[in-house]
Design goal:
signal; disordered N terminus; metal-binding; Cytochrome Bc1 Complex, Chain A, domain 1; alpha+beta; disordered C terminus; 13 strands; 456 residues
């Protein structure tokens, strides 16, 4: 399964040092350790309820795949539930449920993660199960042959029978020439058809190691005792050399790209995507990604934001419109504006409408009062996220996988609040230009009605 993540990370304190057998760093409620085998451990205390979230993040996603083997990261996520020498196939989920917990996993372009949420006294049990499959995963060719059929059916249902997914898949494949982001996370169907159990086993052997993993534990825990548990279950797992990650830099785009997709759908869609910079771990004070994040919120950050107010409510050009930008990622970033056309409206009208809204920002800028309301709203949203123990673990994990540290979160919060209206206008003018634009158009086709036989 996949979670759609728009990652803004906020709100921790400055660093102080602790003395431990493993190297350790700590704040008032967040503690980081590095085990001798390279495993990173982050513990965030939250004592409001007697529950805990336990997550293992592997820095291996579809960005690490190659042509001919796309989708293998997601397939291996499925195979991780097929058992070990100690746990029979299907038993992992049953054992967690027997403890009153919930569990699942998800694969993204940048990582694969596994989690359990349990009552705090059950942490030791789920940790033992997760550590076991980090090193002892076992599945035969028959198990794989059955599961790959499940994944192929998932692709049919979620992508091939879904016009939104088909359009997004074609957009990414058109926008990027070299970056692995051009491949779908679930993989191309032909690669799934030809995938072997040995491909999944090799992926496991390559990337599933403590020195490529981060364990994140949030909730009602004692950090000292929790560290001891992690050392007990994970500390004895050997590190191994990881494959070399070679850069796959995207060539400079020098003109508009366009792709048309024909698929059964109720209405036409238009997506416009511009290549823009992302936030870099070694340049976290670069204001442009923060300004782009705020630009997306100006356009689509609340009900009466500019795109919705103009194109949906006023001129009734669209049934739905949105703007997306994720400044936290391992690979290249896109600034995306998408629109579901209202009945009777054309693609040309939709593109003209979007360009008009964007021109108002590039030509006239953003009101200081408008920007301040958005900044306040974003800050409030981060506070609300802290009501979720699982949400806290998700924020930390996504940030760490992109090469940042949870210790940078205060910087992200502060920089976002310092961005000015002039900076938002500047990034709109600089980056929303045709030379970096990719356009994807959904041409709706009539849906085939099912034929029902009548027995006489």
């Amino acid at each position: 399964m996949r979670y759609s993540l728009q990652l803004l990370f906020f709100g921790f304190w400055l660093i102080s040092q602790l003395a431990w057998g493993a190297s350790a760093q700590s704040t008032e409620d967040t503690h980081e350790y590095l085990l001798s085998n390279g495993l990173k451990l982050i513990i965030k205390e939250d004592h409001r309820a007697p529950t805990v979230a336990h997550m293992v993040w592997y820095r291996a996603g579809s960005i690490d795949e190659f042509n001919g083997r796309t989708g293998v990261a997601h397939v291996l996520e499925h195979m991780m539930f097929k058992g070990t020498d100690k746990v029979k196939p299907g038993e992992f989920s049953r054992l967690v449920a027997a403890e009153g917990g919930r569990e699942n996993a998800f694969t993204s372009r940048d990582y694969t993660a596994f989690f359990q949420q349990v009552e705090k006294s059950k942490l030791s049990k789920v940790m033992q199960l997760e550590a076991d499959r980090m090193v002892n995963l076992s599945f035969d060719d028959t198990d794989f042959a059955k599961e790959i059929q499940v994944v192929m059916e998932e692709r049919r249902l979620r992508t091939e029978d879904n016009p939104d997914s088909l359009l997004n898949e074609s957009l990414m494949a058109t926008a990027f020439m070299s970056s692995p982001y051009r491949h779908p996370i679930i993989g191309w169907m032909n690669d799934l058809v030809n995938m072997k159990a040995s491909d999944a086993r090799q992926w496991y052997q390559n990337w599933y190691a403590p020195n490529n993993a981060t364990v994140i534990i949030t909730g009602d825990v004692d950090p000292d005792k929790t560290y001891q548990l992690v050392e007990k279950y994970y500390g004895g797992i050997r590190a191994h050399e990881l494959p070399v990650r070679k850069p796959q830099l995207e060539p400079e785009q020098k003109g508009v790209k366009q792709v048309h997709v024909k698929a059964p759908a109720d209405s036409a869609q238009l997506v416009m995507a511009w290549k823009v910079p992302r936030l870099q771990p070694d340049n976290i004070n670069n204001d442009e990604p923060y300004a782009l994040e705020l630009l997306a919120a100006v356009l689509d950050g609340y009900d009466n934001a500019r795109l919705n107010r103009t194109l949906v409510k006023q001129v009734r050009l669209a049934d739905n419109v949105d703007a997306q930008y994720d400044m936290i990622s391992r690979g290249p970033a896109l600034f995306i504006v998408g629109i579901d056309l209202a009945k009777g409206k054309t693609i040309a009208q939709a593109e003209a409408g979007i360009r008009k809204v964007l021109a108002e920002v590039t030509d006239k800028g953003v009101l200081d009062s408008e920007l301040k309301r958005i900044q306040t709203r974003l800050l409030a949203n981060q506070v609300y996220k802290r009501d979720s123990i699982f949400g806290q673990a998700m924020e930390i994990g996504g940030f760490e996988m992109a090469g940042f540290s949870w210790k940078d979160l205060d910087t992200v919060q502060d920089r976002m609040q310092q961005i000015t209206s002039a900076q938002v206008q500047a990034v709109a003018k600089k980056y929303l230009i045709d030379s970096t634009l990719t356009i994807a158009i959904l041409d709706p086709q009539a849906r085939q009605s099912a034929k029902v036989g009548v027995q006489k």
